[in-house]
Every structure is written in structure tokens, then in C-alpha cells.
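Proteins fold reproducibly. Next comes an illustrative record:
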Amino acid sequence: MSEKLQKVLARAGYGSRREIEGWIKAGRVTLNGVPANLGDRAEVQDKILIDGQPVPQHRLGTGKCRVLVYHKPEGEICTRDDPEQRKTIFERLPVLRAGRWIAIGRLDINTSGLILLTTDGELAHRLMHPSRAVEREYAVRVLGEVDAAMLARLKQGVMLEDGDAHFDSIADAGGDGANHWYHVVLKEGRKHEVRRLWESQGITVSRLIRIRYGDIQLGRTLRRGQSKELESEELNGLRVLAGLEPETVPASAEKVRTPRRPSPPKRRIRGG
């Protein structure tokens, strides 16, 4: 059964559908020896090249979807390559023999917490799409006097430079003075949206941690810089949330491995 080319390549882990659509428009993809066009459909037996490199046919079949939970520390960015040579989240992730990890949304360099990554570009695309209205929950430490009227405005909606925005819920999480925390929930992923909402009320965010995406919680046991792979029950919960069929393919023989740090040089013991 044929499917749209960008969907086939997204499911194979090459990127999100939107990203691959850009490659097709730029002429980077060929289908059976002909430059691909948006709207082209592909099957497993078709010959697809990206930048002149063939796409292995085994990756075009229905592979196993994987989802990783990563606890991002502050100071890391969510892009693969950075001209400023800053640390990226991809440096610490388990290594895949085939495919690549695709980030489901981003956190800015000064925000820590939960990042989901998957080998399935279609899943990533759907979970990020505004139409899915997937909840994101953040723990926020604020500086400034917060009153009931301000909280009401933040839930009702305020006008930002890119349109109306609001929190779906705000819960007081305790603390005094400069160490007061709130838990906020929203269903969008606009850039710096949490910070900008508070700043619209004259409040400064001094710390921001994402603690939940959909039904996936950050948890207390996953330390900063560590990752874990979701079990099938949680993974299928995300797939259902995204409007996809549950994963039924048995675990493949492929295993992920965590990058190993070089061992320290052995000390030589001198006799005498």
C-alpha cells in the first residue's frame, strides 16, 4: 500500500514530515530515479535517495517505534549542530544502529526537564501539532508579587506579540519570597511561551522545569543528563494520544547503547 513520501520517510526516522517536505521542495529527494515532488506516494520496494544516498529498504517497512525520555540540564541546546559549539542533548543519548532520535519539541538553553525523543518522525509530528492540544506541564519559580487578579488574567488569556495565549491551569506549589513556585499547564509549544506569559504581568521567571508531556512524567529517579526508554504501555499511550495505532511489532534485535566515556589512563607502578 502506497503512502505519501514524506510520511514514509518520517516513519523511517529521517525527520519530521515538515522537515522532509522541505527536502523534497529543495530537490534533495529522488524517487525511482526522478526528482520527487510533494504529493508523490511511495511503497517499500521503491528506490528513494536523499542527497544521493539510498534509503535502505528495510527502513521503509514498519519498524519498531521507540521513545526516549531525557532529563535535559540547563546549558544544553536541542539542535544537533551548533556554530557556537555549545553542548547539545544528542551528545548524551543512546546510540542507534539505524535511524536517529527526533526531538518532540524543544526546550531553550536555560530551561531544564523532560524532553521526549522518538525514532518515528510521524509520531513526533503529530505530538507537536497544535491540533492535538497535548498538555505540557512546567514547574516555574518566579520573582515578583503575584495576586489573584494576575492569575485570573493568565488563565483567561493575554495578548502576546504572536497572538493570544493563556495557561490552562495554574497551581501554587509553595515557597516564600524569591523561592515561590507554581505548576502551570498549557497545550501549545510556542517559543518561550511560559516565560513570556509571566513577563506580560511584570513577573520574572528565575527557573523553569518541564515536568510532564502528555501523560509522561519526568519522575524523581531520572537524574539530569540521564535518559530511559519507554516501555510498551507508555509508548502506546503516546501513540493513541497522537491518533496512531498501538505498536504491535515485537522488539527488534537492535539494541541501543549509551556512549561510553574514555577510561582514564592506567597508572604505571614503578618498582624499586
Observations:
- The CA atoms of residues 111 and 253 lie 35 Å apart.
- The domain at 3-60 is CATH 3.10.290.10 (Structural Genomics Hypothetical 15.5 Kd Protein In mrcA-pckA Intergenic Region; Chain A).
- The mean pLDDT is 87.
